[in-house]
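Bit of a strange request maybe. I'm writing a small parser for structure token strings and I need a real example to test against, not something I typed by hand. Could someone generate the tokens for this chain?
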Amino acid sequence: MIDISKTYNKRFKERSLSPHNYPGEWVIRTLLGKYPDLNFQRKFDNSSKVLDLGFGDGRNWLLLKNMGLNIYGVDISQEIIEYGYLQATKLGANVNLKIGHNSNVPFPDDYFDLVLASNSFYYVDQNQTFEGHLKELKRYSRKGATFVASLPEIKRNFLFKNADYLENGLYRITNDIHNLRNGYTLRGFKSKSEIIDVFKNTLENISIGY
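Reply from user aminoacidic:
Good idea to test on real output. This should exercise your parser:
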């Protein structure tokens, strides 16, 4: 297993200096858009807490700030935390950032009203399991909380080309064109029905889009 923090420290240091860090289109669509099949009741106010899980370069924070949410973030190294605070200062956003992982989020039980996991929840650390991610998600989320995440479909995602299949939907990446994740383990999904089956004991009212 590679130490992915080394590759991401460099990546997010460069991005923290960029004036063009914007949320992904799917994040904006999900949090602000209205669609017939999107089962998302937005019951947030200025007391609501959002966890940006794997916040990276902080590209979601201006959106979350404008939504009036209290922003918390977790990422994998102290360097990324420091870049995050610099980015928050530029944005005029108040954030609470801590080192953590999908399987170990250092915040209390029943704490968050919204969890946003943009390109992060499917990273599985050595000696951890995706099932551990789900158990941890359930621990720190309040009853009725919303989980918004991107998940990779194996046949559509370039990361899984020539990847080594391990077990239980886990793949060791071997052909990342960005050379960031080679050697790392990711959880991939074959279909909507597989996603629903995996998350059904953790979440209610699941909506899936492409």
